[in-house]
Design a protein that fits this description.
- The chain is mainly alpha-helical and 146 residues long.
- The protein is 64% helix and 7% strand.
- The chain has one domain.
- Strand 1 and strand 2 form a beta hairpin.
- The longest helix is centred in the first third of the chain and has 30 residues.
- It is elongated.
- It starts with a strand and ends in a 7-residue tail after the last helix.
């Protein structure tokens, strides 16, 4: 995505929209939007599986954050739908989506950490995705071109 900016002579030059500081962060903002959408879809699938059947996930006896699997299913389903929408907003270039994405990705990290005993592999994958999303959204700065 490019935008044109005026130069001292009155001519306009094309520059990338928002120099992100580092190439990783500039490309990372788009990747973060896609990853949030993927994490949202994973959350929806985890949620549907938890709501549909209590036998899908491991039973945990002694755990501080123990909830009914159906409750966890609803938590993941709602969080997944919201993450999917926020990811779409980031890909659309909405500033509100970037700001909200950081908070919801952090909330997703906490939820997946608490979900860890039920599905360790998927919880770790979701935490890794969310940590990258937080980094990409926080390190991208839309700098004005001089």
């Amino acid at each position: 995505m490019t935008q044109s900016t005026p130069t001292p002579g009155g001519a306009r030059r094309r520059v990338p929209a928002g120099d992100g500081g580092s190439p990783w962060a500039a490309g990372g903002i788009t990747f973060a939007g896609v990853l949030l959408m993927v994490d949202g879809v994973l959350g929806i699938v985890k949620g549907i599986a938890g709501i549909a059947s209590d036998d899908v996930y491991a039973r945990i006896d002694q755990y501080v954050f123990k909830f009914d699997v159906t409750t966890w299913g609803w938590v993941h389903l709602v969080l997944g739908v919201v993450l999917l929408l926020i990811g779409w907003g980031i890909l659309s270039g909405a500033l509100w989506a970037r700001a909200t994405g950081v908070g919801l990705a952090a909330l997703s990290v906490v939820a997946n950490f608490m979900w860890l005993p039920y599905q360790p592999v998927w919880a770790i994958i979701s935490v890794a995705i969310d940590v990258f999303v937080i980094w990409a959204l926080c390190s991208y700065h839309n700098k004005p071109v001089a």
